[in-house]
Each structure stands twice: as structure tokens, then as C-alpha cells.
Amino acid sequence: MSATRPAPIKLSELLRRDVAADPMITGVTADSRKVAPGALFVALPGSAADGRAFIPQALSQGAAAVLAPADTDARLAPLLITSGDVRRAYAIAARGFYGAQPATCVAVTGTNGKTSVAAFCRQIWAALGLHAASMGTLGVLAQNGNVNQELTGPGLTSPDAADAARMLADLAESGVTHLALEASSHGIDQRRLDGVTLQAAAFTNLSQDHLDYHGDMGAYRAAKLRLFETLLPRGRTAVLNADSDAYSSFAAASIMSGLGVMAVGERGRDLSLIGRRAVPEGQRLTIDVRGSLHEVLLPLAGAFQASNALVAAGLCIAAGETPERVLAGLETITGARGRLQRIPGSGRGEVYVDYAHTPDGLETVLKALRPHATGRLIVVFGAGGDRDRAKRPMMGEIAGRLADVAIVTDDNPRSEDPAAIRKAVRAACPAAREIGDRRAAIREAIEMMGDGDVVIIAGKGHEQGQIVGGITHPFDDATEAAEALRLHA
Ligand SMILES: CC(=O)N[C@H]1[C@@H](OP(=O)(O)OP(=O)(O)OC[C@H]2O[C@@H](n3ccc(=O)[nH]c3=O)[C@H](O)[C@@H]2O)O[C@H](CO)[C@@H](O)[C@@H]1O[C@H](C)C(=O)N[C@@H](C)C(=O)N[C@H](CCC(=O)O)C(=O)O
Ligand SMILES: Nc1ncnc2c1ncn2[C@@H]1O[C@H](COP(=O)(O)OP(=O)(O)OP(=O)(O)O)[C@@H](O)[C@H]1O
Ligand SMILES: N[C@H](CCC[C@H](N)C(=O)O)C(=O)O
Ligand SMILES: [Mg+2]
Prior knowledge:
11-stranded mixed beta sheet, globular, binds ligand UAG, binds 2,6-diaminopimelic acid, binds magnesium ion, peptidoglycan synthesis
């Protein structure tokens, strides 16, 4: 991606407050290793380290000023500015420094479906002739007509605030006018997107994930609600999936925050899904847009993709496009990489790679594929290390109940003992097979696949590595599945 080099700006202008001295600031970063002369270093207390420990390093590398939490010792830096919400101050300063952003930015939050919704928005806008982009788990993808460009590769779902501000400025400079961002609960909680001006925001669903970070579902929901309560300016539109159990709390919070609510889904009153029929090319949707009926051929399978499609359509409408044009755009979309991705190459059954890594995601994808299996439904899955442990038996129970054959394998054990993770998963599906080596597990599933069987390889989707200890070993489910299909042709 082209590196935007904004002009230096006075510290007082950047922070919009009086300061003891007013140097010209040449960069904004929360990482001491990236400090260049003239930078504003933002010292953030984090989960693994306290950024204040790196103030001496930042100063020695030429930091012109330091922004830090309110309780920071003033003697730590010659020019120290404090803030009661230093992460928010960081995001706003980064935005101020980099300046530009695409004119229309929308954000989507929810446990599952963010990547899909962001990808759908980008494609709908591109189908309407707009220069569009998406930013999230798959990186930054830009689309202008039929030209697709991967500007950055997969990384955090919501990037660090300074990275996000720089990428938004780069996108604006390259002519992108419409951007859909994924807002992860970590990202919202850590204020990574507080500098982005949003035209609309959406919510897909809320189910269990990330309790290792948030502690309980109330705190997890509160993080997601912050997108509507704090980040989306009053008067704008919250696009909410009315089929989610959490809909009413998101609708109430949005109304209390002075937002308009666009309710979408089978129970949605604004974009209402009144009919859905599977066809070989995907599914035919009948959508009621405030009294006018529209037929849409969505070229994707699965009820959850219809739900994501409605949320994406709602966002594009809330951001200014007409329903007719947006619904026509839906007919052109393709699925996001690694989300219910069909791997070609078998005359016997069907093989899919999918990113289901939560209980609800796994249940949803198994239910979506069941109608495709005239034979058995075979699932290969695991659970991530250093992540929410309560998910493990829940995912095991779901696989045991909804699949005919479940194979428990490894999915990024990280610092944990892989066998212990598999044991926790299998506690709820004792009949499952256990094959720790993911390649062997995939080969076993494909070897046993017979006519009419469907194999689903869940959990890693687009990921290109298996993280064991601190090492990422190259690994790609789609490549492995294709190779296994070749071996067992
Ligand atoms: C728990 C978590 O979210 N951590 C993220 C967070 O780290 P942190 O603030 O806790 O940072 P830390 O490592 O404790 O360090 C504190 C501060 O010291 C600074 N530092 C550190 C070392 C040094 O030498 N110099 C220095 O200045 C760091 O830059 C940081 O500002 O901020 C960092 C910078 O933005 C992130 O890289 C880091 O992501 C870690 C690697 C991570 O794995 N995050 C995952 C859990 C995550 O955020 N996932 C979400 C959700 C995915 C989903 O949707 O399911 C995502 O948005 O991707
Ligand atoms: N609306 C939905 N409801 C339930 N499950 C879904 C939905 N959309 C997608 N999924 C499942 O969740 C998986 C992840 O989908 P997607 O990547 O779009 O979600 P995400 O919210 O971006 O995830 P992450 O938090 O990891 O970024 C999919 O592969 C699918 O199995
Ligand atoms: N954004 C999610 C992705 C999980 C993907 C799965 N493969 C795993 O490693 O658990 C997380 O970081 O929790
Ligand atoms: Mg995502």
C-alpha cells in the first residue's frame, strides 16, 4: 500500500488542547519500536506490557512528546500530556495526523458474519460503479469495477488505531470513496476505531466467544453496543439483524443514542425476508422493502448468508444507495474467502472449508450443509489455544449432535498443550475420532468420503498457518483439502 506521508502538524492542533510546549509532530505511534524523530509516542498500558515502560526508548529515538494515561508520573518525559481515556485520545490523534478517510465509511460488528458482510458491501458498491474497499480479518481489499486489489493481507480484524488511520488515508488518496470496516469487540473496547467517522453501522448476532478477554457475556455485549452508543454519530442509522436474540438490546441502545434503526431479517420490518428457496445457483430471496416486494437471486447457499446479505444491503442503503440498486447488486456477490468455500475436485461428495470457530458458527454451518448431504456429514474441527476455553465442550457437543462423523483436530494450539484442548472438546463428543495432526485429519475425512457425503473442514478458513507454541507453521486448509482430494481421486 502506498505510504501516506502527511505534513507535520502542531501538537496543540493535533490534540486540540493547550500544551506546555508546541513541537511539530511528524508521526503518531503506540509502539516505541516505530518511533522516529518528532513523533508523538502514545504509552498504552496493555495486556502483555505497559507502554510507559518504553517511554525512555521512545525519547531516545527522538519522540517529541508523550501521551499517556492520567495517573502517569510527569517526570517520565519532558513533554508529557495525559488523558483520562488514552486509547481514545490516541485514535483521535492518529486520525487528526493522517487526516483523510473515504467519504463513506460503515462498520459491522457481531460474533459471526463481519467478514462476510464487509465483503458483500464492497462488492455491492463496486457493482454500482463505486470505488470501494473492505477492511478486516482478510486485510484491506479494494475493488474498482472488476479490478480487485489486496492492499494488505490478513491481520487483526480491527487494526491498531494508527494503522487504521494511515490505511484510511491511503484509501482516500487512491480514490476509494466507500469503505466497510469490521469492528471486533476487542477493537471497539480498545478504541481502535474511535477516529473513524461512520455513516452507518450494523450488528449481525451475539453468541459465545472471547470470554477469555471480556469475562462474561454482559461485558462482551457492552463492548459491541459501544459501536452504536459512542462511535456512530447521532442521527445516523443502525442496521440491526432482527432475528438475533440480542436485537432488542441493540435497538434500545440505538434509540437511546439518537440513531435511526433499520431492522432487517425474517423479523425485520424495514428489509424483511419473507421467502427463501434453495436453487442450484444459490437461493431465491423474496424481500419486502417497506411494502414493495423484490425477488433476488443470491448466488450463495445457507440461511446465514441470506442473513449477512440483508445486513450488507441494509448498510449500503443506510449509507445512501437506493434499495432497488442495492438488491440488484446482491445478485453479483461471491462469498468471502474461506467462508463456506467449496473445494473442487471430487466426483463423490462435496468438500467445504469454513471459518466456523465459535459454537454458533459451527452449528450454523453444519445446519446449512445438512441439506446438501444425501450421505453423511463429516466435520473436521478443533478449538484455538489461548482463547475462550468454555467454547471447547460446546463445539464438541454441537459436532457430535449435528454431524455423522466428527474428527477432532488441532486449530492453533498456541501456548497450550494441544492434547488437552482436544480432550476438552471430546469431553462433549466422546464418539468423535481424534487426529491431532490437521493434515492427517483432513486426509482421513476425505478418504472416508463416499457418494453424497459432505466434508466440512472448520475453524481456519483463509488462515495460512498453524500456530504451535510461538511458531506459525505454513498451513492452508484449502490447499490441504485439494491435495487430499487428488490423493484419493
Ligand atoms: C489482547 C489484545 O487484543 N491485544 C492487542 C493489543 O495489545 P495490548 O494493548 O495488550 O499491547 P501489549 O502487547 O500489552 O503492549 C502494550 C503497549 O506497549 C507497546 N510496546 C510493546 C513492546 C515494545 O517494545 N514497545 C512498545 O511500545 C505496544 O505497542 C502497546 O501499545 O494491541 C496490539 C496493537 O494494536 C495488538 O497487536 C494486540 O493484539 C494481539 C496480538 C491479539 O492477538 N489480539 C487478538 C485477540 C484480537 O485483537 N482479536 C480481535 C478479534 C478477532 C475476532 O473478531 O474474533 C481482532 O480485532 O483481531
Ligand atoms: N450470520 C451468521 N450467523 C452465524 N454464523 C455465521 C454467520 N455468518 C458467518 N457465520 C459462520 O461464522 C464463520 C465466520 O464468518 P465471518 O468470517 O464472516 O465472521 P467474523 O465475524 O468476521 O469472524 P471473526 O470474528 O473471526 O472476524 C463462517 O465461516 C460461518 O461458519
Ligand atoms: N478472530 C478469532 C479467530 C479464531 C480462529 C481460530 N482458527 C483460532 O485460532 O481460534 C480469534 O482470534 O479468536
Ligand atoms: Mg472477521
